[in-house]
Amino acid sequence: MQLSREDLLKAYKGMCEIREFDDAVHYEFAADAMPGFVHLYVGEEASAMGICMHLNEKDTIASTHRGHGHCIAKGCDITDMMKELYGKKDGICGGKGGSMHIADLSKGMLGANGIVGGGPPIVLGAALTYKTKKTGNVSVGFFGDGASNQGSISESMNMATVLQLPAIFVCEDNGFAESTAKEYAVGGSILDRGKAFGLDSHEVDGNDFFAVHEAAKHVIDNARNGKGPALLHIKTSKVYGHFEGDAISYRTKEENEKIKNEEDPLKIFKKKVTESGLLELSQLEKLENDAKEQVKIAVEESKKADFPTEKDLLTDVYIKY
Fold it and tell me: What share of the chain has pLDDT > 90, as a percent?
């Protein structure tokens, strides 16, 4: 599929924003300026953008504990997200959710999830609604290679096939469930598991935005047109380890350097589009600088913002329909 220059710029803009956001969180958390617990998406940007560029605001996604990239790719406001991570009142969830429970229903972002494998069952509910109401929308559930072993994933795949729901399952396989290698803990093939449940299943190079974008278009278009659910098994890498503070002792120095220098989706994208003459280097550098400035402002505003008050404790406890 040939993308327009506008689409290419949009893709790189989103990947830069994800990268700068989580790089900033990495620095702020290390400086003990940010509360809570965070898991960063650096190195996996092509997955979120390659998929979410095919979605509209009424389509939905459910994320994982590593959810910042999915939020940004789905259109969530970066400053409101940063305020949420700082626990501030004007955060995207009122400062009450933090990193692992960040959400914005107005953008179709059903939430990050501290429960491993917790997103796909939520996606089933959304997808069943879309099928019942014939809206033409789809719902995408992200999960990791470790979560692929959870019963919730198998049950969700089975139900999606039985009911022929417009649901897309995305396994972002970065090779490790926390510090446990996939080769040790995952029996058989994740791709074959999807096929066994009758899903249209594809394995994708997650470092290549174009490969992700093409595969995502195929399965999302099919789901919209009533052709049922699918699985994308995306092979990717996380740069910073499982959580902030992770010593990454389960990877060698050489492996870490290879991930940063040879498997970086932003570097790969930049090389492809400049060498082919699709975009100018100056255009990409401007997007990089814009993202840096945007995230810098988000951090500054978040630090100055107010915390929730005692009265805010009892808000959002119940919802009225």
Answer: 92
